[in-house]
Every structure is written in C-alpha cells, then in structure tokens.
Design a protein that fits this description.
Layout lengths: L5 H11 L4 E9 L4 E4 L5 E2 L9 H4 L14 E6 L3 E8 L2 E8 L1
Antiparallel strand pairs: 1-2, 1-3, 1-6, 4-5, 5-6
Length: about 100
C-alpha cells in the first residue's frame, strides 16, 4: 500500500470536497492542557470561515494540521465509509466519503 502523506490528504479533499464527511475523534482542550476524547459521528464537512487558517485546516472546520512531519495519516475504512484518519498533537479526526 502507498504511504499516505499530506499531499495525499489534500488530493483526497480536493477530489471529494462536495461529499466530504468529518468525524472528530479528539481535540485539544486548553482547560486541561491536553487532548480530550470527543468522538463524534460523521457529518458533512463545513468550510472553515477564517481565510488565514486555510493552510492549517484545508478550509475544513474541525480539521487541524500541524505540519513539519508531525501529522500521522492512516487509511480508514469500515462498512459505510472510506477515507483517511489524521492524528497529531491537536487531536485526531477522520476525513471520509460514503461507499
């Protein structure tokens, strides 16, 4: 299987932007100064309203990329969805499309 990189994720997002789903599994919580679990169900990815965050979020609300080889990418597939799971110091989320 081919290694998944940030370029792979960008290509996947650009090809599937209209049908893209996101499930946020965990996110950074400033109150506890660590990543907290917040497993959510898949929902259509909304556009990030802040233009200055485009590079860090790929314009996807709930997604966050830290860069500098500190993002980890895994293939994701279950009975209903297929996509890419992303994990980093800001949390983890799954970008997917319906099968």
């Amino acid at each position: 299987m081919k290694k998944i990189t940030l370029s792979t994720v960008k290509s996947f997002v650009n090809k599937n932007r209209q049908n893209l789903l996101i499930s946020v599994e965990s996110r950074f919580d400033g109150m506890t100064d660590c990543v907290q679990s917040c497993k959510s169900s898949f929902d259509f990815a909304k556009e990030q309203p802040k233009e200055w965050l485009k590079k860090d979020t790929l314009n996807i609300d709930g997604a966050w990329f830290v860069g500098n080889s500190r993002d980890y990418f895994y293939a994701y597939e279950n009975d209903n969805f297929q996509g890419i799971e992303v994990s980093n110091s800001c949390g983890s989320f799954i970008l997917a499309i319906a099968k």
